[in-house]
Protein 1
Amino acid sequence: MELKLSERVKSLKPSPTLAISAKAKGLRAKGIDVIGFGAGEPDFDTPEFIKEAAIKALKDGKTKYAPAGGLPELREALAEKFKKVNGIDYKPSEVVVSAGAKNILFLIFLMLLDEGDEVLIPTPYWVSYKEQIKLFGGIPIEVPTEEGRGFSLTLEDLKPFVNERTKVLILNFPNNPTGATITEDELKRIAQFCVKREIFIISDECYEAFTYDGEKHLSTASLGEEVKRITFTVNAFSKTYSMTGWRVGYVGCPNREYAKVIANLNSQSISNVTTFAQYGALEALKNPEAQKFVEKMRQTFERRRDLIVSLLREIPEVKVNKPKGAFYVFPNFRTYASKFENDIAFTEYLLDEAKVAIVPGSAFGYEGFARLSYCNSDEEITEGINRIKKALEKLS
Ligand SMILES: Cc1ncc(COP(=O)(O)O)c(C=O)c1O
């Protein structure tokens, strides 16, 4: 049957990262021993005390609609978190809760973009930015960053792509897929440039909890009042507390008027984030045990990062930067991928030959690279990279 789709959704592509995870899961369900490096979520369970708080909320009858912008006590706790952790002074009325960072981004683009507005996306980029922008008539503009600089964005990278149609810049540090962070100097230069040119910044800080080598995450909006006035600080409970399935994200807005619009969009679409899930999120902010859990995860990821980078560096012709954050590595497989029609065919070869699932770089705007998440045990990481090594030897 021919589908009668709107022009807007006709070109929409499904998330390739979810697709590769689904393919690996499908093979595993058939009893095939696949090692998956595709997942974009921590392999830790949500802490028990967070689950208990949501269960208690359910038992206490917190099963009805909640305010569209989020539970007042959660917005208050988030304003406190922004102050304490990020050094940003948001009022609770400037904070909105929605269904994960993904939906927050969706609503911000819906709120800001008119037909033909350009959005700068430092590349490699997280997969959903581009598709969301296009849905709302915006034009995603890819801004390549340099592998040799660890994909860390500079003002010089951006400038050639800025014109009078530029409306928004997306910053995502630590970055998915590269794990890159940004220096304080460079962030200040970029932020000041955006202030002058009146370009909004969407600062996606979902991986803020995961930085390594003693580096501390720096929030864009903490750089001063002028910067805060153009910045949306996007975050979520998903990665920080291993709560990806809970669907609780939040944003700090330049002022309460923007926050109201986002809450109104919630009210006309999802109504509110699942009420008892918000009580779980509140517990994550309030219970001091949560920070110990996050630190344990962070240390585990840092150790695994060292392991996976050292194993990848043993493979001839594979180049890999040591990421400074998040839980991904983004190696350059061009020598091998160029033997195939494209890098999708290359990753399919690895799935068939080595039974290892990785995500092709083209999904992130960088053909010939691939993203590997290290949300796996040390044993799986070791076995998986060895399998890749053997499969690549066959191509030499
Ligand atoms: C950079 C980035 N932003 C946003 C999201 C979406 O997060 P959430 O699960 O809270 O919607 C992800 C998830 O993979 C991400 O990597």
Protein 2
Amino acid sequence: MRPTDTLANTAPNSPHGMADPAISHSTALPNRAYTDPEEWLRERDEVISKTWAGLGFSNDIATPGAVYPVTFMGLPLLMVRDQNGHAQVFHNVCRHRGMQLVAEAGETGLMIRCPYHKWGYDLSGQLKSTPNIGGMGIHEVAGFKCADHALAAVRCEESMGIVFINLSGEAPSLAHNLEPLMSRWRALAGDHFEEQLIADSGDYGAMELTLNSNYKLAVENYCESYHLPFVHPDLNTYSPLDAHYNLLVEPLASGQGTRVYDLARGDDQPLPLFSGWDSDRLKTAEYLSLYPNVLLGIQADHFFVILLRPEAVDQTRERLQFFYADRDALTDAFERRRQSLHEAWSLVFAEDISVVEGLQHGRASPAFDGGLFTPLMDVPTHHFHQWFLRGG
Ligand code: FES
Ligand SMILES: [Fe+2]
């Protein structure tokens, strides 16, 4: 499917695009989609499971033998880097008596050993050792075949430094899923922008916070620039609302872009740019919510990913990772610039906390029935709701 051409969609008097009066009468997700724990689990099993959700970052499991336990909507999962360098995701539970296999991120070597009775699984999840299963010093027993008891795997693939999972195992490939977005951004950032991404694992490379809200409210807030002058007055000085446009990338992403993102603020050393970035659009930056739980931001000199990990119906862990276009960007020469970016984006995302949590409080009100989609400014949010109401 072709990405929406936002320029063709731009009305002369509105940088955001054409108004769509029909959305004013659309159904929105009801309050219970934000407040009901049972609805939260139904959403996991019936909507999110059908598609690709962001679980963690590739650099959480940087090298073979790295393990990273993560609970996703109540499911204890384990990310592993196998011996071939591929990401693997397993249910984080021993096949013997159901012990949690790994409690902390770290290096496990060639074998994942259960802490309870020390059964050992290799990095591809195969059960390889069962100490004392036949009595002290006897490690085999008649009728028991290790090959029948591999860890339960979850389908996973990586892209843009993100480990994605497909819980049902039945979605089209991740590459197929991301193609509309990738073709849009290859036209902007160059055919090889994805291979160029270098994760910053240094002091200014990441941030984490907890939101007391349903994850969908963070997605919705990220979809729109309408709140920019009021919630982000500083950002609005260098990337004002009237230079923004709406973005719809069918079928599973929406957000907004700007034509005036200033790469050269202050006297910091300018960062290396993506080598194939369109030179006519150096100040273009785009911000897309990739449904259901990944927020992406692309600029000519840096890229970031925010993973929203739902911890409860009304609580979300937000993890941000910065990426650059060249390894040089991680050297001391650019430290000041990396620090400035970290400070600037930290401010923006901190400013969003109170509104996202305020939206959550509002969802407790029986007087709110899903509210209104205004015909211009809420087009990307409406798109997200429609995706959800279709069942993903
Ligand atoms: S529960 Fe894991 S070895 Fe027994
Ligand atoms: Fe915001």
Protein 3
Amino acid sequence: MRNDSSSAHRRADAYPDLDHVYAQCSGPGGLRLAEHMADAMGLRAGATLVDVGANRGLQTCFLAKEYGVNALALDPWDDREDGRPMVDHIVDNARAWGVSDRVLALRAGVPDTRLATGSFSFAYSTTALEMIRAMEGGAGYQAALGEIHRILQPGGVFGLGEPMHREVAIPDDLRPYVTRGEFSWAECFSDLTTTVAQVTAAGFEIVHAEYAAEATAWWDEFARHDPFAKADPDGDPATLRVDAGRWTSFGIVIARKPHASPA
Ligand SMILES: C[S@@+](CC[C@H](N)C(=O)[O-])C[C@H]1O[C@@H](n2cnc3c(N)ncnc32)[C@H](O)[C@@H]1O
């Protein structure tokens, strides 16, 4: 029996309509991931949090409602389904969740946030920065981490949740699946050791790093409930089926910005 609150999902279980959750989130884990991360980060009511790559902001609203944080949700893109700016969806979701007073939305991304240095006590990012790795390479990913470090207060906590691959080579039969399409998983996904090194290089101290024990369950939920996955069973669901948990995983890194940077 599990006895840690993060894997019991007491708060995420209050939102059981997974088709809705996955229509408003983008990536594995939905609100279960948000709860797991929030507990690992030690979120506290009244704290300021920036959600980097918030998409439609459902996780942001969940963190504001269930943990009482004051959140700024950043997202630079338009929605691929209806073409509306993501920030418009964030505003709508904040209203629907009754957290308009605690969730702000800003059309911006890392590294060009233009936010003041040391603005937040927490930074949170799920299933977003790996796309920067594919678009901008390792240097772009490092610049994104550097910006998150800059906008956090000294002592502030960064929670990073990312689709990652296990520390093994891509199985030959899986390669055609993970190298196909725009933002292929092979281009986007890194491993935990590499990611920890990059977070450390950005100036953070690592508090905790793990391959989530529930990664397979989160990906399975994604395959069954994400609208794009449901519409294309030969896409991501086929990749996950062929993989059967050999390569694809989900990594979590919790890190702190030190109070005093080394000279
Ligand atoms: C796959 S979605 C995940 C969103 C959300 N965290 C979730 O789990 O539901 C990734 C988001 O990252 C955003 N994004 C793209 N480039 C970005 C950047 N440079 N900085 C921040 N977010 C970015 C995209 O607009 C997209 O909404």
Protein 4
Amino acid sequence: MPNDRKIIMVGFMQAQNCSNYPASWRHMESAGDFLTPDYYRRIARALEDGKFHFGFFDDRLALPDIYGADHKEAVKNGIRVVKMDPIPILATMAMSTTHLGLAATLSTTYYEPFHIARTMMTLDHMTGGRAGWNVVTSLNDSEAFNMGAKSTIQHDRRYDRADEMMQSVINMWNSWEPDAIKFDKHNGIFADPDKVHPIEHNGEWFQTKGSFTVPPSPQGHPVIVQAGQSGRGRKFACEWGEVIFTIQNDFEQAKKVRSEMRDEAQMQGRDPDTIAIAPAFYVTVGETQSIAEDKFAYIDSLAKPIDGLTLLSEVLNFDFATKKIDEPFSDEELAGINGLRGILDKVVRLSGKTNPTLADFVEFSGRGTVREAPHLVGSPTQIADTMEKWFVEGAADGFVLFAAHTPGGYEEFSRYVVPELQRRGVYQKEYAGTTLRENLGLSGYRKRS
Ligand SMILES: Cc1cc2nc3c(=O)[nH]c(=O)nc-3n(C[C@H](O)[C@H](O)[C@H](O)COP(=O)(O)O)c2cc1C
């Protein structure tokens, strides 16, 4: 592990009316111009001021409409209902920044390899080699219905398809040799045809034949980001991911998970130093601990129970409006839940009940509240203490910042916490290079298989 390593910092962004915290739009400081380029440029500038390595847009191909079998509650309460296409927004953000990496989430389940390969490589050119792709497999039935499918593909099978997607996309990205273009006007030769290789993929999920249409970008190809947490998901993440996001509540567990992921990468024939593990956190920072605690109490008060019920229905593919508040879930109902199983496991563990009630789901999942994910609350020194410990003692290579309100959540982190981390020598003062992969220092460029 290089001893000049620095924290890799990532901003978790949404092209929607709220942050990851659905109640964030109710915060007095949240901006209402989320349909304008100005809003996203402000976020981009805040992240670049704080020398973040990259910002990335999450994505879902549906608004929550499983609760009550329609979209009414979600729309009325503004629960992640706007979802714009991340790619044009990233292109806009690229124009007001020079070094910030810009990543988008695209689904391996609902797009074709050519589509993803071309969109992402084009973005990589238009950002001067600053693009990244958050590879997700999509788990909601609502997404399936919007995309013309009858239901989601079963969990592990989604990852089988994703594996094939990666092989196919990476082969497309590598099909033009870097020196293929000659642009020789004198002899009338645009490019060397021997350096542009046709691509054929005959797999279970994809069959493609032809030539790719976008030459390689300044960083070769976009940086690959992933967040698989299950056994199958982690195997996938460690095979393909360069930056891997996780959710960890506790330092010892985070250390264990990072070490297991590095071992998994090694088993897959990769150098573990070419992957970075980044747990996600909310941060509420104030001039003093008590100011931060007051801010947190206000943020926490913004959530309504309907936020959690709507999001639980979406993420577990089960209509929570069909249950009474104290009615336990039957074994059959629990077995039928085919969304994020990690949430179900957490509720069973924390409630101590094999058949939890609706109230248990709301309380113990924390879904829709700011307590769902780990949250650092304190003064800049206190926040920096935790981040430095996790980074120096092997629990993290970097962090993903969730914002409890936008754009202020990013601005406060950049203004309050970053200078303290820089003072301690664990956070970059300047970007190392010009492309995202150079700035990450990961050299994880993938060749053709
Ligand atoms: C920080 C973070 C960001 C994520 N972003 C998205 C996203 O934008 N879209 C999505 O469908 N899933 C997203 N996920 C979910 C993961 O891709 C993955 O499905 C989830 O962590 C469960 O792991 P598993 O697929 O191995 O069961 C995200 C997860 C984390 C931790």
